[in-house]
TrEMBL record:
GO molecular function: S-adenosylmethionine-dependent methyltransferase activity
Keyword Transferase attached: yes
Top-level taxon of origin: Bacteria
Protein name as catalogued: Methyltransferase domain-containing protein
Transmembrane portions of the chain: none
An individual GO BP term: antibiotic biosynthetic process
CDD domains: AdoMet_MTases
Species of the source: Streptomyces luteolifulvus
Length: 233
């Protein structure tokens, strides 16, 4: 996903430009720190106090120049208008968040308002068009059959959450003024890997295959996750 994001950023902004990035639901700060290391100014917004603490701990180990480029705020992603002025960011990330939001449209509209003209909105969501893949590949035929006609599912943490369909999000992005420009699949072949599985020796080959599948039909359509990129008009 990081490679996909870098591709979209490189195609839309001048080389070397220091971008203003908002990471909504930043978690432990993996993407925020990565982008700060390559020179961008990053603001992370996260409501889970444990994740905020983890992100701050990770940030504390970085060189001063990188620490100065990261701002961490504890708060709800649905309240971006409370913290920031419209048009304040060149890039807005919202990765792995929408599945926990029952009504995502207001959140998405708020994220779009944070973008400057030409700004990039990057979403990572559970693929509602492929919910039957994981149980089906595991031989759970009842679970697979029940997944065809729903966007609700239980994740690996045991939480009841929701997925998003590509067609629905495409219409939503158009409606909030950040129409879809590109989309990718994420975890096409690796979704059934066990949690905590050891990183294989041929990880670069694995990533190359996943990256190729994530941009190629029909494989990307059955990925566990979808990475959608919209651009503010």
């Amino acid at each position: 996903m990081a490679r996909q994001l870098d591709e979209q950023m490189a195609g839309r902004f001048p080389v070397g430009q220091r971008l203003r990035v908002l990471d909504v639901g930043m978690g432990q700060g993996t993407q925020a720190l990565r982008l700060a290391r390559i020179g961008h100014q990053v603001t992370g917004l996260e409501q889970d106090a444990r994740m905020v603490a983890a992100a701050r701990e990770s940030l504390s180990t970085e060189p001063e120049g990188i620490r100065e480029r990261v701002r961490i705020i504890e708060g709800d992603g649905r309240d971006t208008g409370v913290h920031f002025l419209p048009g304040s960011f060149d890039v807005v990330l919202c990765h792995g968040v929408l599945m926990y939001v029952e009504e995502p449209d207001p959140l998405l509209a708020g994220l779009a308002r944070m973008l400057a003209p030409g700004g990039l909105l990057s979403l990572l969501v559970r693929n509602g068009d492929a919910l039957a893949m994981r149980p089906g590949l595991a031989g759970d035929w009842a679970g697979a059959l029940g997944a065809f006609d729903t966007t609700a599912y239980r994740n690996r943490l045991g939480l009841d959450v929701r997925a998003d369909r590509l067609g629905t999000l495409t219409r939503t992005l158009a409606g909030i003024g950040a129409p879809l420009q590109a989309w990718y699949g994420v975890r096409v072949f690796t979704d059934t890997a066990a949690d905590g599985a050891q990183v294989p020796d041929d990880v670069e080959a694995l990533l190359t295959v996943e990256e190729r599948a994530g941009r190629t039909d029909p494989y990307r359509g059955v990925a566990a996750l979808l990475h959608l990129c919209g651009v503010r008009g």
